[in-house]
């Protein structure tokens, strides 16, 4: 019996490890889409047309419009975020989307939105087009990229250092979740520079690429943040262990003296992924410097303060500057658990597939995928030719 139990446990660990690698990989169809659109950019003048057209350029900094920022290298995911936002809007012509991507994806991303116009204003920018965003100006970026401990942690052997005989599958799954390579991507950290990236904007809504918008979001601009910087849904009021019952103790190592001295383990956490930012209020605070300071301290302490991505330093940097918004604005967890209540999903303004089981991957939950796929245009030639099939 002990032998069988050990084999079952080892099999579960193997399953979790395979799932982790599946979640980290780029699906073949999405990779194909990026390559074909990049090729189109070089051969088709229509794919290179200016976005937005010259007469609309002043609207990119017009504060009477609703500005959304999306940072991603996933073209298909970006198209779903933009399409769902526009289709759910009562006034799509008042929407401005600022899409930020990396250098390798820029041409393909630009091609997609140039060839598939929508009734909103679209801007596509590559990180390489922000002159001030260099490793010299932001030294912590170079440190994050080149730190050996970080490279080993996110790209090394995920079994070494894990005592499988003394851990549970649940704990092992949590550790794997914390080791996703996307957590050290500059595209993931870029939101901390929003005031510098958009110096003329007063407010902006930041959206992750694994969300779907189901309701008009224009009322977000009417929410009084009461002088705070970040309007976000709190994630400490629910009962499920994966998503909505998170406090600072879930993210930080309180045996570290610097953490124990500065933070309260019972303080409520909040969600990244759909945030309304008051950029005017933000510019008066030193949020970015605090973020950088704690990133550096965690590097110095060999990642012993926290492991999981960009949320922990943001929890510290925005401490005292977060205004809770109604939970119906942002429902999380669709990439974690397959028991998600479909009726609750239908009522949420924004649903978030945070977690490993993304709707565009093979390990996405079947009953939650149609809410995402209904915003994919399967008649599009590029999507058909890359065999991105409707499930």
CATH superfamily: Spore Coat Polysaccharide Biosynthesis Protein SpsA, Chain A
What gyration radius follows from the Cα positions, in whole Å? 21 Å
Order of SSEs: HHEHEHEHHHHHEEEHHEHHHEHEHH
Amount of helix: 25-40%
How is the main sheet built?
7 strands, mixed
Shape: globular
- In whole angstroms, how far apart are the ends? 40 Å
Query: What's the number of helices?
Result: 17
| Uncertain spans | 157-161
Q: Would you kindly provide a written description of the structure presented here, covering whatever features stand out?
A:
This protein has 391 residues and is an alpha/beta fold. It is 38% helix and 10% strand. The strands form 2 sheets. Strands 3-2-1-4-7-6-8 form a 7-stranded mixed beta sheet. A two-stranded antiparallel sheet has the order 5-9. Strand 2, helix 4 and strand 3 form a beta-alpha-beta unit. Helix 1 packs parallel to helix 7, helix 2 (28-43) packs across helix 4 (103-115) and helix 13 crosses helix 14 (311-317). The longest helix is centred in the first third of the chain and has 23 residues, at 2-24.
